[in-house]
Design brief:
With 120 residues, the protein is of the alpha+beta class. 19% of the residues lie in helices and 42% in strands. It is built from two helices and seven strands. The strands form two sheets. It has a four-stranded antiparallel sheet. Strands 1-2-5 form a three-stranded antiparallel sheet, with no helix packed on it. The longest helix has 19 residues. The N and C termini lie far apart (61 Å).
Length: 120
């Protein structure tokens, strides 16, 4: 008797490697003394990353993911910064819940963090 077992996904190995990389990047972000943070005040959304990391930041992006509507998603690249503060105007968002997905590399180490933010 012979049974063929098909993989659910043809590129499972690549997806597993990407998932493991994301887990390590998340662990790297969680190990930071100064945590990555998202705050909203005075009509702006502030992303704060430790400035010792942002001076050498590469491959950096913030993705504001809106679970209710893909059309409301926003993505911005993040450039090197001396102070580690990035500002986004609230007026560019639709109302609702967003999950800010922050990913970047600094000094050869990958970082990934997620923060929930509500736009009234």
């Amino acid at each position: 008797m012979q049974v063929d077992i098909e993989m659910v996904e043809s590129n499972y190995y690549e997806k597993e490697m990407a998932f493991n990389g994301k887990l390590q990047a998340t662990a790297n972000a969680n190990a930071l003394k100064q945590k990555i943070s998202i705050n909203k005040k005075e009509g702006q959304v502030f992303l704060t990353i430790d400035s010792t990391l942002t001076t050498a930041i590469t491959n950096a992006e913030i993705h504001f993911y809106n679970p209710a509507s893909e059309k409301s998603d926003k993505k911005w690249p993040l450039a090197a910064s001396g102070n580690g503060v990035y500002i986004f105007p609230v007026s560019s968002f639709n109302k609702g819940k967003y999950i800010a997905k922050i990913s970047f590399t600094s000094a050869g180490i990958n970082y990934y963090a997620e923060e929930v933010i509500f736009i009234p």
